[in-house]
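Hi there,

I know you've been waiting on this one. I reran it after we fixed the sequence typo, so this is the corrected version. Both the input and the resulting structure follow.
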Amino acid sequence: MVLAARRAARRNHGDLVMRLPALSLLARFSLLSLGCVLALMAALGWVTSHVLVQNMQESEWETTAQIVRYQARTHGLEQIFTDPEARLDRARIRSSLSPLFSLPEIVRVKVWDRDAVVLWSDDERLIGRSLAGDPDIDVALRGQVRVQIKSLPKPENAEEREFFGTLAEVYVPIFAAQDRGPVIGVLEVYKVPQRLYGEIRKARSTVWATTTLGGLLLYLSLFWVVRISHRIQIRAEAGRRKAEAELLRLNQDLEQRVVDRTAAVEAARRELEASNASVSRLLEESERRRQRVGTLVAVSRRLTAELDLPGLLGSISEAAAEIFDGEAGFRLAEGQWLVRVGATPGAMEVMATERIGIGESISGRVAATARPYVTADTAEDPYLIPAHRARARAARTGALMCVPVRMGAGVLGTLIVFGPRGHRFDDDAVNVAQGLADQAGIAIENARLYEAAVQARREAEMALSQVKQLHGLLPICAYCKKIRNDRDYWEQIETYVGERSQATFSHGICPDCRATVVAKEMEEWRRLQHER
């Protein structure tokens, strides 16, 4: 049924084509192609002329601005903006501006300072007036060339309207240095763009003439090609009819091949969908890795900049939770113990024991081996201690990743990251966590060194203050060896020195005193004992 319907449709189509007049196809194409070519010519001519006019105007205004800046630098016009006395000398300003009036098409010049005040104008009524807030002046004071082509509607342009219908107002910023530095003033140049408009008219005429000629050639070429194609089509129609029988004969075989090919295409489509899904997963994983690395870099910078050790220890777990979007905790090694010094609320529920030994539980095992450890089910992990196992089951904790915080060959602590049920930490996550832990180790060592340096400085300052207190002339009694203090009281030398330093004293007898005083006293004591 399907084959019969297709044969009938093709036969009817062939008969209809043969019944149509030979020139109807050319006539329809002539009208359609003529309309398309005319539309293309109009669009191309308008766009080309518009872009050309825009470029010519921009080039003209930029050239005018460069010429004005050059004349200003050459004739010392920049001093008008920087020298308070020069801006009051109108004769000097007029002399400096005279080269600008000699330029072609320039009919008037105004001088503005950086406060939008008119320093000089042909119309003396405008001198000293402020036009702050004028959009054209504001744009020029920001360092951009501003151009307005209009019929001079502003009040300060009343004099120009008497002589010119349309002028180009070119606002040229003057910089402190050559084409750079802050803007020190603005030169407003009134220009009659007759030459520019003449060139624009010539350019437009050239563009439209070229576009028209090109459209005509395109239309004739297409018409010639279609005419030849129409003749070829007529000759091919006979061949088509001759091949119709062979085509119908091969149609059945082709349909079977189409069925087979459709099955193959369907299989390829399913394979392609699977491949696309795999690519999507890879892209998502790549984006997740990129975000992790970016967050790791930012967190690492924040950790290495922290020198307060207590604050640093508390922020390590927060940094890990931020990177992996989960819960995290940190244990610091103190001798043979690992002490919990920071944890997010969710991690605190599982890390119930504040101190665990090295080699105990998952954290202790990681600290002992200095190697990362990953488990998909925290509550059922054999290394977890019973107290933590019960907490993990109650909190419905899933995956766990623990990495050592290393500094050189030593382990400063462990970093633990918790994930939800069904989550698995891959090698990339372990590498990122280990990178964070290494940065944390460096930050901890830096904070400890900083605290040691601060403590050493305090001790040095204290010792220096004690040395200063003991410096100077100290009166000592020659008989009892007491020292007169700052309040003019006599006190024992041990008391005086002990209050002003960390020195302690022990009492004994020196060899000289033992030979002179003690020996005589012992000899006297023996004599008295002998007499008794």
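Quick highlight: The chain has four domains: 1-73+200-263, 75-192, 306-451, 473-532.

Best,
R. S.
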